[in-house]
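Retro notes, item 3 of 5
We never archived the inputs for the LLP complex last cycle. Fixing that now. Sequence and ligand:
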Amino acid sequence: MHDFCYKGKELYCEEVAVRDVAGKVLTPFYLYSRKTLVDHYTKLAKAFKSVKPLICFSMKANSNLAVVRALVKAGAGLDIVSLGELFRALEAGADAKKIVYAGVGKTRKEIHDAIKTGILLFNVESAGELVVINEIAGKLKKHVQVSLRVNPDVEAKTHSYVTTGKKESKFGIELDTAEAIFLDKARYPHIDLCGIHVHIGSQITLGEPFVQAFRKVLIFLAHLEKQGAKIKFLNLGGGLGIIYSDEKPQTADEFASRILPLLQGKKFQVIFEPGRFICGNAGIFVTQVLYTKKNQAKSFVVVDGAMNDLIRPSLYGAYHEVLSVTKNENLKRIQADVVGPVCETGDFLAKDRNIPDFGSGDLIALMSAGAYGFTMSSNYNSRPRVAEVMVSGNKFEIVRKRETLPDLVRGETIPSFLK
Ligand code: LLP
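Structure as it came back at the time:
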């Protein structure tokens, strides 16, 4: 599944001991395995080989240049949601023709710059956005490809914060409205309305919600085609779940065996937008124990990483397995919370876990932290963002330097009336 495992007592990433990276980089840091990243991309590409999908890695999950570069080199396209991600994509050497642009709130500047860059298509979420894209495309004398993101009203059976395909969510367009837009496409002469996009949520471990949603979309597509719509792209989104603890998500092959039959005889260019499936288990977060403390109710392991570095536990109650970077079987096991230095009770990385009775200086790995880890980190409590490191075989390199204190105030000034 991934390339983080023990050799003797030491946790390794591929052929590099995590302890050696900590010695060089100091803590906390994110550590990525290039091999796991590429393997996961390849698994999906192979499983769907018969339909030659364009797999657009969802950069919001991890947009580090090295991560994006590794995937682009393996053949991936990219799913972006901002000019920042477009900038990173191009810096990483991506081919603009393999970039799809999603999001409910694209600004005029974002639309303008993305058209100029020559991206493959926009995933559009409202009629208002179509009007703006049409106008800007006209001014630039361009004809722009667009997929409509539909909302199939399907329950993805995942955390409510990352459920996106129910009609109560802000995402996508109801099928009836989408149909009306397609029939009215003459209103948008600078747009080629040529695709359908659907993404029903994230960390979906069951196959059924995908099948339900895709079935609905395919019926809808057939209906549109009967009315003369010319559909080139079928973007099936991302959302594949991974193992954090005891989940039993579908493998790429199981997913393909459910989905490929639905696509039989269809001539669309199929697009996928996986994020977590590719990078979730390709990264860990490494932190060091500062202190341990105990009160009448609980034991706490206070570490140097915090919610600003890895917010998933605080925000979603997400589970990340806690492992010792160096195993010490002599330590008894205790029930404790792993908490950071941030001044909030919500600042925990793990809650009520049965873990070794760690001591000051011990290194801890929070597993499966490669997706939505660094990308959701912040400078809360004026904590510099941590370093990111990539391993390839027996080599490792810092792929993002730890922020410095001056980085924290970059762009800030004291106004003249306070001098
Ligand atoms: N496509 C669209 C339109 C999306 O909104 C997303 C994720 C993806 C693709 C990629 O989804 P994935 O394959 O990674 O599930 N911060 C949350 C997850 C938010 C997902 C947002 N959209 C977390 O840490 O669990």
